[in-house]
């Protein structure tokens, strides 16, 4: 009985360690070299993201200046924006749950949560597509932010 318990604890620890090393999500990551994931992400992005962030990832005009309601316009997801300043898991979480849970108190955003709209794979795919459009130097800087 004791040996079985120790074995179960060790197996659980190994599984948890693997999960943590994979970024903690247990699902696909935002791999910009995965052609199938990028192709899927292109479609997801066009359908769910491009209306605000631009078909060419250019964001809304004057994206650094607040709107009259206090929100910020959608930022670009290309190399001129700040998307690449964040690790993949943070980008995933913001996409899935919206900006507000991760922003300072009182921060208001027009970015909706996609938890009930997109699957986890679709979120990872959209991020893979975005990352596939970055220049190599920007991609390397962003990848250095991932655990």
From TrEMBL:
Gene3D superfamilies: Cytochrome c-like domain (1.10.760.10)
Positions of the UniProt region annotated as Disordered: 59-85
The UniProt record lists the keyword Iron: yes
Compositional bias ranges of the Basic and acidic residues kind: 76-85
GO terms for MF: electron transfer activity; heme binding; metal ion binding
Domain spans labelled Cytochrome c: 36-134
UniProt-listed Pfam families: Cytochrome_CBB3
PROSITE patterns: CYTC
Keywords annotated in UniProt: Heme, Iron, Metal-binding
Protein name: Cytochrome c family protein
């Amino acid at each position: 009985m004791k040996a079985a318990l120790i074995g179960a604890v060790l197996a659980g620890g190994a599984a948890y360690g693997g999960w943590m090393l994979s970024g903690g999500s247990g699902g696909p990551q935002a791999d910009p070299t995965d052609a199938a994931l990028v192709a899927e992400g292109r479609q997801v992005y066009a359908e769910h993201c491009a209306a605000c962030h631009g078909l060419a990832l250019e964001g809304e005009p004057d994206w650094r200046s607040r709107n009259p309601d206090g929100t910020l316009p959608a930022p670009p997801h290309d190399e001129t924006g700040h998307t690449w300043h964040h690790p993949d898991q943070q980008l995933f979480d913001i996409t899935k749950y919206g900006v507000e849970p991760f922003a300072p108190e009182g921060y208001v955003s027009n970015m909706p949560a996609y938890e009930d709209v997109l699957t986890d794979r679709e979120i990872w795919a959209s991020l893979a597509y975005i990352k596939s459009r970055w220049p190599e130097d920007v991609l390397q800087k962003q990848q250095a932010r991932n655990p």
